[in-house]
Amino acid sequence: MKIDLKANNTNGKVTEMIYGQFIEHILNCIEGGVYDPDSPLADAEGIRTDVLEKAKELNPPILRFPGGTVMCQYHWEDGIGPKSERIKRKNLIWGGELDLSFGTAEFVSFCRRIGAEPMICVNMVSGTPEEAANWVEYCNGTGQSYYAQLRRSHGYEEPFNVKYWCIGNESYAEPDLGVHHDVSLYVRDALEFIKFMKLTDRSIKTILVGCDKPEWNKAVLDALHPFCDYLSLHHYSAENGKGLYGPFEGEKALIQMIEEAADLIDTYPDTIENFNPWYRFPARSGKVKIALDEWNIWNFAPDETYGLLAEYNWRDAVWVASAMNDIVRHPAVAIANMAQLVNVIAPIVTTKDGSYYQTIAYPFLLYRKHMIGDRMEVEVPSVCLDTKEAGQIEALSCSAVRKADGTLCIAVVNRDFSQPYTIGIGTGKGTMTTLTASSPYDQCDAAHCCVQEETAAVSLDEITLAPGSVNLILCAE
Length: 477
Ligand code: AHR
Prior knowledge:
eight-stranded parallel beta barrel; Immunoglobulin-like; 9 helices; 2 domains; binds alpha-L-arabinofuranose; TIM Barrel; seven-stranded antiparallel β-sheet; carbohydrate metabolism; alpha/beta; 24% helix
């Protein structure tokens, strides 16, 4: 079969901000992952140097912290000042203890070392608007006020300049400690948080809780759209007992959620005229955008680790590439954070002696390097894959950008593990990098990487996509 794939009009910019990551105080993501002072691999700050190097290579431009659901019980003042004085708390959400040695300053320092913007999620459940505003002042204050001075007394003369602030997390989901599952309560409290926080620093950007329920998103935006820079969406695809093709079926929900939120956002004005003069901070400028600030595959299990210590196979990496195509393709998605960076549903896994990349890291690295630029509208004709377990899914997934140097980059994923496809995208020559593995069930471990990467010259009129492969084609035109 020969498929013509056409990359035509441009539709906005794909920025690096869609290649963000997330770390939470959850199992061994931070404690024993990023931060492990007892490890021989740790540096003077307690950061695992092997993790640091891999995080630098993944190069997320934005990193979210400290949760996630653990935000419900996170009081930021537990995580500042001399480490010897920091307490531990019981981790009410994820079990074990919440070691607060890796707090705000350590997070910001880690962000600086890997070149990421910090993105902080505030506690809207057991915290108060004032506590959140004090956190903003501790991070960004430049004057002589108490929390700015407190930061200085901890040795940080310069402000941390944290720009991105999430106003709660998954409030709709009614987790153990949730109080905002009724949207009217979320709206009421979020407004107070935003006021306190924006009056502390007028320049911060707010990310409000959205979800796959259009009525929730409408209630949030109706009440708060002038204060909403980004609407947060979260998505986890899962196998759900549907075997090889389960996550691909789940991806339909991701696309639908993004499209519905984007359509809703289009009904609100791009800029806010005649902003209420009683508010002494500016309204949003520019369109509300989507922050897909948690996404990945998560096969939830009712065990003590909730299935979070996932071992990803090659099928999962093929899904991750498809999800990145969905993200690249949609102009409303301005920020995205893969959840999470280390050990917990993560591209990086640590062992006592070192660390390794799971399969899902490889498409991430490839896209992070190339898929940034002018978004090109690209169509791949429908090739229906009739799967026994998950019904009908599309065999091919694609996205395209034109990089700043003019190179056209087309990412095409063949999600059919049983056969190759041949596509044509024009004339002339290009190069193609292909990621594959010998079986969809292959996994990486500390001793071996199952992902094969090959770059070769290709004729653009006839390109063969191997079964179950992630392909990135670069051409001058
Ligand atoms: O990433 C794991 C958890 O998934 C996060 O804590 C929560 O926000 C989401 O439900």
